[in-house]
């Protein structure tokens, strides 16, 4: 990267004196161990560590300037620029340093509790059908064209995100479908991004270990529609909060099964392997055969279709994209070894998503529905009993097991889930070991039954207090099915 002056990346954020204005920088860093000579270092207060504590180390490694929220002792004050919020400064400086790449790539930002990943895959499929070279930023993968990029967060830190978007621009990407988490909005990771479309799927209880309430959680999601530059706004009005937002804000396209929606699915027929419906839009109507099961995937398809219409994609290309949609990893993903019952793996890890996934499986299953799930440790404890209740309302038998217990006692988490079964007649059993839980469900299943393994989906690891191990529900289910045969 060619050297830039500090003024060229910070002038819109803070007033600089003449000496600082002329400072030449070659890059940006927010971790001191990543600093290279010529970088400017941003001191980011974290949940565990505070970047201000590493400012001296950053200067010793060659940082020519540090951006701080308070003056740091041990560093010449002439090398420090004080800003109100270093996260905001990092985001905007990173966008400027990389040439504002989101102005060259059409970004579709998808937010909501559930459905973000699937909707991104559907948008990607549609845009490919329309002839775009595409990118994806999300939970399952980050991709430039057909090349997968390793990522550790649903939405990367702002500096990493801007570098990624710049790579997309430089490699000729036309459009990018991006999951935008509430954490990303609240922690300013997407500040400085110009969205071609922002879209809302739904909102249910999740992340209350981070947000103080469901109201505060929604208010953060809502900010994507009120505080960011976006050409078009798409909202699912089947969701009550989405409907309220559509009434309050200037929304361009509404979607849903509701007769009031601009983009609708009518004559809907659900099946075990997908659904058929008529896609009704302001651009006309068209028959669609969606290869993804469950009614909530129809909702995801409508959000994707609305987003594509906002980008000017033809109805014909939207239909081709929806009908050619790939299986989304860990989203009602089938594991088939020739057994006489269905085994599906799904990422459902909230009360609402667990209920919907179980209900979707139940609608296309002649026999019993056996659900295997747990709940993550060090995360919102209030949803654990709600997940137990949600499963009990829909399943015929429940196997409660471990998810990612992290630093918590997995037995304690299981007991909290069991609290939600109080007063229900649904039978259940517990297995602290997740493999044993999956094996027990598979051994129990008979012809015409379905086993839904929920919670981890595409994840290929399990986190304990003292270690992280390789664990993939799909692999384990396949191994246990082979043992059964």
Task: Briefly characterize the structure.
This protein has three domains: 4-97, 3-Layer(aba) Sandwich (Udp-n-acetylmuramoylalanyl-d-glutamate--2,6- Diaminopimelate Ligase, Chain: A, domain 1), CATH 3.40.1390; 101-323, Mur-like, catalytic domain (UDP-N-acetylmuramoyl-L-alanine:D-glutamate ligase); 333-484, Mur ligase, C-terminal domain (Protein-Tyrosine Phosphatase, Chain A), CATH 3.90.190. The protein has 16 helices and 25 strands.
Q: How many discrete domains?
A: 3
Rg over CA atoms, rounded to whole Å, is 24 Å
Strand content: 15-25%
- What strand line-up does the widest sheet have? 10-9-8-11-7-12-13-14-15-16-17
Sheet bearing the most strands, described?
11 strands, mixed
What is the fourth-level CATH superfamily of the largest domain? Mur-like, catalytic domain
The tally of beta strands, per DSSP, is 25
Discrete helix count:
16
Low-confidence stretches: none
CATH architecture of the largest domain: 3-Layer(aba) Sandwich
- State the end-to-end distance: 58 Å
- Mean pLDDT metric: 92
SS content category:
alpha/beta
CATH topology of the largest domain: UDP-N-acetylmuramoyl-L-alanine:D-glutamate ligase
Shape: globular
Q: Helix proportion of residues, in percent?
A: 25-40%
CATH class of the largest domain: Alpha Beta
């Amino acid at each position: 990267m060619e050297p830039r002056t500090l003024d060229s990346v910070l002038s819109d954020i803070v007033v600089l004196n003449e000496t600082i204005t002329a400072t030449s920088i070659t890059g940006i860093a927010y971790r001191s161990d990543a600093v290279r000579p010529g970088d400017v270092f941003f001191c980011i207060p974290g949940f565990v560590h505070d970047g201000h504590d590493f400012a001296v180390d950053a200067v010793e490694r060659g940082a020519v300037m540090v951006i701080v929220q308070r003056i740091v002792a041990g560093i010449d004050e002439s090398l420090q620029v004080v800003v109100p919020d270093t996260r905001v400064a990092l985001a905007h400086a990173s966008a400027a340093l990389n040439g504002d790449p989101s102005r060259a790539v059409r970004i579709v930002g998808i937010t909501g509790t559930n459905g973000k990943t699937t909707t991104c895959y559907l948008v990607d499929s549609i845009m490919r059908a329309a002839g775009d070279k595409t990118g994806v930023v999300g939970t399952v993968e980050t991709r430039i064209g057909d090349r997968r990029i390793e990522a550790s967060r649903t939405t990367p830190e702002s500096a990493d995100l801007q570098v990624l978007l710049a790579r997309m621009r430089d490699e000729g990407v036309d459009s990018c479908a991006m999951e935008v988490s509430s954490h990303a909005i609240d922690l300013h990771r997407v500040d400085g991004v110009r969205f071609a479309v922002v879209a809302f799927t739904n909102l249910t209880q999740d992340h209350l270990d981070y947000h103080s309430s469901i109201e505060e959680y929604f208010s953060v999601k809502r900010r994507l529609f009120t505080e960011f530059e976006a050409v078009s706004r798409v909202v699912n009005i089947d969701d009550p909060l989405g409907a309220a937002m559509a009434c309050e804000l200037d929304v361009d396209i509404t979607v849903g099964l509701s007769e009031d929606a601009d983009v609708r699915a009518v004559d809907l027929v659900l099946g075990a392997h997908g659904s058929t419906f008529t896609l009704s839009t302001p651009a006309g109507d068209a028959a669609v055969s969606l290869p993804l099961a469950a009614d909530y995937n129809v909702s995801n398809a409508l959000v994707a279709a609305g987003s594509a219409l906002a980008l000017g994609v033809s109805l014909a290309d939207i239909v081709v994209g929806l009908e050619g949609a790939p299986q989304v990893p860990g989203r009602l993903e089938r594991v088939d070894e020739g057994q006489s019952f269905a085994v599906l793996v799904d990422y459902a890890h909230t009360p609402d998503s667990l209920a919907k996934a179980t209900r979707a499986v139940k609608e296309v299953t002649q026999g019993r529905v056996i659900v295997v799930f747990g709940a993550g440790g060090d995360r919102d404890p209030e949803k654990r009993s709600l997940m137990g209740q949600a499963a009990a309302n829909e399943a015929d038998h429940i196997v409660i097991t471990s998810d990612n217990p992290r630093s918590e006692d997995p037995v304690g988490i299981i007991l909290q889930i069991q609290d939600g079964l109080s007063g229900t007649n649904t039978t259940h059993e517990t297995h602290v070991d997740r493999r044993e839980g999956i094996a027990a469900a598979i051994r129990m299943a008979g012809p015409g039954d379905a086993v839904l393994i929920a919670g981890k989906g595409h994840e290929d690891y399990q986190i304990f207090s003292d270690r992280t191990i390789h664990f993939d529900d799909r692999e384990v289910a396949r191994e246990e099915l082979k043992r059964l045969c």
